[in-house]
User: Fold this.
Amino acid sequence: MKLHQIKIDYNAEHDRLMMLVATSEGAEIRLWMTRRYVKLLWPLLIKLAEEMSPRVQTQADPQAKKALLGFEYEQAVKKADFSTPFQESARSMPLGNEPLLLARIQTGRDPAGLPLLAMHPTTGQGINLTLNPVLLHSVCKLIVAASSKSDWDIQFKLPGVQLENAEEDVPRVLN
Assistant:
């Protein structure tokens, strides 16, 4: 199936993030992400972002590495479409109408060598997302935005990316 849209929102009643994945074939998959799950997922997303970029990997200076990762995040997010609302329409639900409670995460590579993120419940099927820089950084942005609406007392932040209105507490490295 080919990815069409992703939406991640905080659901206060369940104290979870709801991820909706719509495909271009007219299917929708609903996934619950708990606070614990997102705390486990976040470092994997950061690691994938660093591994995805040869420019970030070759940096010896940690500050330069963070700055370059932040730059690549900003460039990738500019290419994503956050202005089009998630299309709420009747779709087939191949994994059921009820959201799956995610419990397992695995990363790897697809046959073409692209990063793969597998997100599954304790038992049964989940989803495998083949990531490119735009999709990876877009998922990061959606998680940051959705979790900021929670009262989880966690700030998910990509290294080198300043939050809006955040003061810079570390001097920048200029090359």
In short: The CA atoms of residues 157 and 166 lie 12 Å apart. Residues 163-170 have pLDDT under 50 and may be disordered.
